[in-house]
Amino acid sequence: EARGCSHRSGASNNSRSGKALEDLGDGERGSEGKDMEGCMRACRSAREARGPRLCGRSRRAEVGRSRAVPKANNRIARGLWRGRVSLPPLCASAPEVEPQEAAKEADSAPSIIDDLKQTAMSLHTKDQSASGGQKAKKRPEFKPTRSGYLRYLVDSRAVFSTMEDIVQRKAELAGLKENGLERSGALDRDIAFLESQGVSPAAVEGDESPGSEYAAYLRDLADANLPGFVCHYYNTYFAHTAGGRMIGKAVSDKILDGAKLDFYHDYPEAVSKLSRRVKEGLEGVASDWSEDERQSCVSETGKAFKYAGLVMRQMTIAEEE
Distance between alpha carbon 41 and the CA centroid of its chain, in Å? Predict the structure, then answer.
């Protein structure tokens, strides 16, 4: 069928022209006949080079589309079915940048923040966080005291100032300098405020306070295992901006008549913005770590929780009579 249709227009015209030439004698053709023969030869050569021209029905049969055209509402779909629209080659369907981005994403290091967060959540109890990995515990009633709270602030001052000093002297941590989450200055003001109210810090049990002990550990750790120090930095600052601020409000409502301390409220920008930039800085610090260094960072999470708990317990030290 396709072959017959391919000569529907051209073949009938050629047969009539050929018959007309046959009706002329050799002597009657003259120059006009020779011109017509030359034209016909040229047409035949062009058709042979171009291939057969198929009608719409034959074209569909040629590509295996013998069924009727579907009722498509999409103009492009109808054009594709009827052969009026063609798709570009598959290799041109995706931008050249996509393979590069895919390769970049595949080569990028996993997030140290994600690893630290997942490990921290596994150590939380269900009563601390719904996604905690440990069973809920029955805890004694939280009864902070003014002297115990001041001891907690003094110990926190030792921890935060030590971390900030380490960030200042370690070139590898330059991206964390003056990030807005620093707490030393705010703690100085809050300690002065409580002392002005006649509050004295609770006495230390043992040779040194938990805060002083923790600060000494951090100084040694930063020199021996900087990735491990980063773990403590992450857990200390982000525990404070999350649950720490809620605890601060509860304490203030119980023993400070709802006073808002700078430790929890005095930030140069929204905490969410500052936290995002600090997390990006931590990712930059860890970007070229080996797998062993990443593991040495995450493995410090348990100690970070232990020391933070010891410091926070200072809030409930009983008042001296």
Answer: 69
